[in-house]
Design brief:
Its EC number is 6.3.2.17. This protein has an eight-stranded mixed sheet with strand order 4-3-2-5-1-6-7-8, sandwiched between helices. The protein is built from 17 helices and 17 strands.
Length: 537
Amino acid sequence: MAQGDNGSSKSSPVTPYEEALDALSSLITRRTRVGDVNLGDRFNVLFEYVKMLDLEDAISKMKIIHVAGTKGKGSTCTFTESILRNCGFRTGLFTSPHLIDIRERFRIDGVEICEEKFLAYFWWCYDRLKEKTNDNVPMPTFFHFLALLAFKIFSAEQVDVSIMEVGLGGKYDATNVVQTPIVCGITSLGYDHMEILGNTLGEIAGEKAGIFKHHIPAFTVPQPDEAMLVLEEKASKLNVPIQVAPPLDVKLLNGLRLGLEGEHQYLNAGLAVALSSTWLKKTGHLEDTCLEQIHTLPQQFIKGLATASMQGRAQIVPDQHTNKETSNELVFYLDGAHSPESMEACARWFSIAIKDQDRTLFHQKPDNSKFSNEVVKMHHGERAQKKSTQILLFNCMSVRDPQLLLPRLMKTCADNGVYFKKALFVPGLSVYHKVGSHTLTQNDMNIDLSWQLSLQRVWENLMQGNKGRSINASSEELKDDIEMSASNSEHSAVFSSLPVAIKWLRDRVQQNRSTRFEVLVTGSLHLVGDVLKLVKR
């Protein structure tokens, strides 16, 4: 077992689970996102790993739904899994990234894999690869290993259907070792990871279409013409029958609501219905079915769509620390949007959510490694006597362009009459070359805040350009104790760490009992996960 990172003999003993996470962390490469290794060469090595783990036959027999795209991959996979689970099938769902625990990436029947099974499968794969790899074929990288682990878990657990979400791109993604999926899906395409996938929608679409396989049916959602033309061209070359799945008609839900919030989810739900129907038909569980959703949906489909749940996407979580008496004085609205288009969808959702005066807040609560829904009622009379203040809590990776993200967020909120009193910019809490809760860093005095200061400058410039807008609701409740921040401006502040920013928010609540603080957390799924870790402690 590896020694503790700090070399101290007084460090607490490492648990078996933490030992596995440390081994997994050793596979995280420190090179740039683009990398210095040819993507094609690195992808081809995956087939060597599959042989080392004796997974060739197992993968060929798996009944896989493979999903790529820029926005909505995770939501589409979540809807699809929920539909087929409600149809009575044993499901395996592989998604990324995780928010709190690595095991979230591997779900069996809608529940993350338990620690005991994770450890057994992890070491089975890790030890065999460690034994068989060498200088010419080194250990797989972090995500490659996780994809291989998913195939091992789902084959060993004998799931009926495996829903595999592409991590990045498609053509060279680790999940693309699948040669004969049952059906493929491409969600909404947009500009993201351009440093790897290309600078035009056409180039990005070409990478995503890399998951297409000869004669295997594929579905997509309505796309911009440039992207659609490329998808159709790639499909034609492989004799892939490709169809555009229409957005789900809300009437088909028989009065129920989608389990995932946001108007854009009707696109993802429509795609999920097409993927699920095709999987059922191709595996012999459903006679020729009409995919146009003209009249009705099976009851199992409706229940699956209505009960689907996903952490970190359009999620509302009252702060457990301050809301002891269900007064909901500090509420976090979490959405891991990180592209211009998803930022706009996030802003629309937030604007609607905070205006729903008599809403019920659903938030997820850990319960023996499962996530159960806890319902918190907000009383109309109580809300009526409180004024609300909107705060933005933001961070994004440095490969993103804040000049594309922040203006879309601000404008969409403003168009809906929502204005942020203060924007808080924080660095990531997690150490990105480690995984596991024991790797959180909270008191690094030498942390580089240059990126957060850049984000703050973008925000302040935007605010200066919007001086005529209705943003001057009184802000006296935010003025005191701002020395906690590393850089304070009129409309924003940079904090040295997320815990300090959370403490500042909680202090504001204590000093302003007549105000409800509604905090939008967005820009990064890593940030959303870090907030959940802190708020749910």
